[in-house]
Amino acid sequence: MEEYIVKDGKKLRLGYTTGSCAAAAAKAAAYMLLTGRPKDTIDLLTPKGIRLHLTVEEIKITSSEVSCAIRKDSGDDPDSTRGTLVFACIRKTDAPGVLIDGGAGVGRVTKRGLDQPVGAAAINSVPRRMIEENVREVCALCGYDGGISVVISVPEGEALAKKTFNPRLGIVGGISILGTTGIVEPMSEQALVDTIRVELRQRRELGAEYVLLTPGNYGADFIRDSIGIDPRTAVLTSNFIGDALELSRELGFHGALLIGHIGKLVKLAGGMWNTHSKFGDCRMELLAAHAASLGLRPEKVSELLSCVMCDDALRILLEEQLYDAVLARLAGRIEFHLQHKCGEMEVGAMVFSKEYGRLCQTGCAQALLQKIMEA
Q1: Residue 321 contacts residue 338 (beta carbons within 8 Å)
Q2: How many C-alpha atoms does 116 have within 13 Å on its Cβ side?
Q3: Which pLDDT belongs to residue 279?
Q4: What whole-number distance in Å separates Cα of residue 321 and Cα of residue 327?
């Protein structure tokens, strides 16, 4: 595929999704089944409007079925499914319509709240529509009005699934067949936000009224080791804290508790909702501003501003006997911005560091934690 986008001044090649692979493989297999002629390449129009011209691999033709595969190309995106073969096996059926199911290496849904119902193959709705539309196109071209069975499989899928969110989401036995546009955009932030949305929606549909959020592994470790609850209770937000809070409110959660390392959550005291360093790094400036307002000596303010890690800044605050006072002010500013962001939804935060443990928390944080633990 030779389509590109430019991000951060870099030219990056687009790829195509597992959904596009599945649809293209199904289209090629249907053509070969209904015409009896081999098909080495296949064209596919993606929902994004980009037309793909793809090589068909691993063709197997028998009297009753045709199987073939399309190799996944994720472009310049660091995708774990890059180079994976996605197979479609096509048969004629007595029942009318196009019946789509998953075979080996395609996950099965075991929890509510996902795109597909419990028990279904984890082939999302847009890929399902793409598969059906393309198979029907071939049927119309060949004058066939009978039924078609489509089974999508990914031989490497079970192993690949361990590198994805699937086990956490309750999808077992393989990967999901995904994609809303049919196209992979390199380093897609939207894909991460979509994953957060799915996990939050799943929790809500299972009846959760309060949700625990944490940016990543540091938070998960703290939740396990210092609070004593299963870290899988938490939804991982990565840097997308603002998006996760907005989604929580949109989905109707009554409350959300955010537990995170000071290196991330200190940024909330300045109203930063995406904590990735490319959007700014105000950690020391915020700590220095609060410390200075409480009387930190100018030379120590300068020293604090030169710190690289928050734990080093905390050491200075301890030495200058401003540790508790600055952290209290920090919690107050985090609470101010959280309430402004979340409106009527009850929201709180707990802040910790790996060296100093729990540092501070907003007013309702403990009550929110109790509600989450009792659920």
Answers
A1: no
A2: 26
A3: 83
A4: 12
**244-303 confidence digits (pLDDT tens):** 999 999 999 999 999 999 999 999 999 999 998 778 889 999 999 999 999 999 999 999
- Write down the pLDDT at residue 56: 98
E-strand spans in 63-203?
65-71, 85-93, 98-102, 105-106, 108-109, 147-153, 171-172, 174-175, 183-184
pTM here?
A: 0.68
- Report the residue count for the chain: 375
Q: Assign 7 to helix, strand or coil.
A: strand
| DSSP one-letter string for 33-57 | HHH----SEEEEE-TTS-EEEEE-E
3-class secondary-structure state, position 338: helix
Nearest to 77 by CA among 151, 165, 12, 169: 12
Q: Which residues contact 319 (CB under 8 A, 6 or more apart)?
A: none
Nearest to 215 by CA among 173, 274, 171, 281: 274
Q: Which residues pair with 13 in a beta bridge?
A: 4
281/312 Cα distance (integer angstroms): 16
Nearest to 281 by CA among 309, 240, 259: 309
Q: Determine the residue type at 226.
A: S
Give the integer Cα–Cα distance in Å for 228 and 198: 26
